[in-house]
Specification:
Blueprint (H helix, E strand, L loop, with lengths): L1 E7 L5 E8 L5 H18 L12 H9 L4
Antiparallel strand pairs: 1-2
Length: 69
């Protein structure tokens, strides 16, 4: 499976785009890995403020609430 993340600034301009080949076992795991990929890249680029968007409400809600698994 290929995961991808795109970072944009407040004007919608692309700051980064990144892909990663991985062995995700389900679409949910793929969404989680894509979120992590984007967060890691934003941290690497020292981006101070970030809005995370994705297709999986479960993943985004878990990140926003700090759910522990």
């Amino acid at each position: 499976m290929i995961c991808a993340a795109v970072g944009r600034d407040h004007l919608g301009s692309i700051i980064f785009s990144i892909t990663e080949k991985n062995q995700a076992t389900s679409p949910l795991v793929g969404e989680i890995r894509a979120a992590i990929l984007g967060i890691k890249e934003a941290l690497k680029l020292k981006i101070k403020f970030c809005v995370l968007e994705g297709d999986s409400r479960a993943v985004i809600s878990s990140i926003n609430t700090g759910a522990k698994y």
